[in-house]
Amino acid sequence: MGYAARSFQTIVSGLGKKNKTNRAEVQEPMQQVDHQLVSLIYQSATDPTKWPKVPQLLARSLGTHQAIVIRSEGKEIQPDDVTTFGIDHEIRQQYLDILADDPWLLGMLDLPHCSPCFSDQFLTLRELRRLPFYQLLCAPSDVAYMGGAVVHNNDNVTYLFAGQRDEVQGIFREEELAHIRMLITHFDKARAIGHKIGALQNSVRALRRVLDKSAFGVFLINEHAAVTWCNAPGEAILRKDDGLSLRLSHLSTTSCQTNRNIDAALTNAIATSSGRGDSAGAYISVQRPSNKRPYQLTISPISKRDAWGADAFAVVFVLDPDRPPDMSLEAFQSLFGLTGAEARVARALFLGFSVQEAADRFEVSPNTIRTQLKAILRKCNVRSQSELMQLLTRAAIH
After folding, report:
1. Which burial class, exposed, middle or buried, applies to 200 when counting CB atoms under 10 A from its CB (0-12, 13-18, 19+)?
2. Of 74, 258, 362, 378, which is most buried with the most CB atoms under 10 A?
3. Contact predicate 244/318, CB 8 Å
4. Residue 2 in this model has a pLDDT that exceeds 60
């Protein structure tokens, strides 16, 4: 039996032991309500459209005919932060007008972190009846008592939930406050999860805005090897349809062998991101029907600590050698501690030149280029030209 169900069983036991059949009949549907409410609390933490349903289930869970849920991201609660159930629209508008004078709300906001409470903590029913607040809000709604809680935290987000009921039902009992304590834990955890997800989403959006300005095409790959997002340069590459395209959301080329190489590299990268492999990635050349220089693909696994997004298991960087990003020789030297000659070779390889093409360009033998490449790999602390391209790619992006 779940935590919510066990907590509610404690409440039901207080209804009296004389009628076991009635108690069982009440318990089962209320357990279902609590499971639905807890589930909805977590959904609502990241999807605000779910909030209107929360007060309704909360009222049923607390055995009240009204409920209020407040989620505020500032120091002061605004009318738009308030979601209600069971309160007449006209009365709700009147309440929002006097929100800052609500003695229950003010009392709850002064409570310690995650404290359950009932209305008599702040003022007696006799004292409440003397206030204009009671005549305006409570009397028309036949409300006398309230039980609920407030969840504070240090990132300026406050959750407050309360159920209101009439005088006949009486004040909230200790076993009912135990039930409220159970709900507090879920509101608190949902608040923390929502904050983390919101921060991650902001990081992802910021990263993707930066990547749109990159000279590389960048493709994010999910666990099924499908493309879930690409930046603006990536979209431009796909529009050219010059050797690289999308088929059923998967990267595809005009060569069956190249497609197999890409599939294998992505499979290894995804396995590494999932903790089942140790691939450092791959470096693949894609021929183009236009006979322009081949696209250079760098495929890398993604650490789950990176802010790429929850559905990203690999990233593919695509370099068009005819539109390469520019890094100065000084940048290669200062970033990686290369000599002038080594920086010249590293930059040429980064721009898509082969060893032979670099040798022809600098009028040296291919063996000289290979010797310099070995020195570059050692200084950059990588094992292969593929890993070197990944390193240079990341350096160029940043």
Report:
1. middle
2. 258
3. yes
4. no
Q: Are 266 and 314 in contact (CB under 8 A)?
A: yes
Radius of gyration of the chain (CA): 31
Q: Is 264 helix (H, G, I), strand (E, B) or coil?
A: helix
Stretch 77-85: mean pLDDT: 88
Q: Which two tokens stand for residue 21?
A: 């059949």
Select the more confidently predicted residue: 176 or 305: 176
CB 238 within 8 A of CB 316: no
By three-state DSSP, how is residue 156 classified?
coil
99: helix, strand or coil: helix
Q: What is the mean pLDDT of the chain?
A: 81
Across 44-58, 127-141, 316-330, 360-374, least confident range? 316-330
Alpha carbons 284 and 286: distance in angstroms, whole number: 7
Asked whether 297 and 317 are in contact (CB, 8 A), the reply is yes
What tokens appear for 112 in the block? 């310690």
Is residue 80 within 8 A of residue 71, CB to CB? The reply is no
Tell me the C-alpha to C-alpha distance, in Å, between residue 29 and each of 5, 20, 53, 139: 10, 15, 17, 31
End-to-end CA distance of the chain: 51
**Could you read off the pLDDT of 122-164 as tens digits, one per residue?**
888 888 888 888 888 788 888 888 888 888 766 677 888 888 8
Retrieve residue 132's tokens.
């204009």
- Given a cut of 60, whether residue 17 has pLDDT beyond it is no
Sign of CA dihedral 380, 386, 387, 391: positive
pLDDT band at 367 (very low <50, low <70, confident <90, very high): very high
- Name the nearest CA neighbour of 398 among 325, 344, 320, 339: 325
DSSP string, 120-181: GGT--HHHHTTSHHIIIIIHHHT--EEEEEEE--TTS-EEEEEEEE-GGG-SPPHHHHHHHH
Type of residue found at 106: L
* Beta-sheet pairing, 282-286 with 217-221: unpaired
Alpha helices, H only, the chain: 3-13, 20-46, 53-62, 89-97, 103-109, 125-128, 132-133, 139-141, 174-212, 232-240, 256-273, 329-336, 340-350, 355-362, 366-379, 385-397
Residue 381, sorted as left (phi over 0), alpha (psi -120 to 50) or beta, turns out to be left
